[in-house]
Design brief:
The termini are far apart. Strands 1-3-2 form a 3-stranded antiparallel beta sheet. It is built from 4 helices and 3 strands. It is an alpha+beta fold. The longest helix is centred in the C-terminal third of the chain and has 14 residues.
Length: 88
């Protein structure tokens, strides 16, 4: 990837980062993820060392952010999800 990369998202861990990266790449937006060295080496998934950053080319940043925002809007609120509530 080119040198003009920008961070568009900070994930809670490498698993979330891989999911976001896959979504972006499926939409035709090249992406990469990076995690602080010690966090990656020790498999940390919480706190600052567990965070993973998603990077895209500067020219793809706006489109990538729009895609992630649209994904976020599609997520149902857990409070509104009645699918697991048995009917009386």
């Amino acid at each position: 990837m080119p040198e003009n990369l920008v961070v568009i998202y900070t994930a809670a861990g490498q698993a979330e980062a891989n999911l976001i990266k896959s979504v972006l790449e499926a939409a035709g937006i090249p992406a990469m993820s990076t995690q602080e060295g010690a966090g990656a080496a020790f498999g940390l998934t919480v706190g600052l060392m567990g965070e993973a950053r998603i990077l895209v080319r500067e020219e793809d940043a706006a489109e990538a952010k729009e895609l992630l925002a649209a994904m976020e809007q599609e997520q149902p609120d857990e409070e509104d999800d009645d699918s697991n509530v048995p009917e009386a």
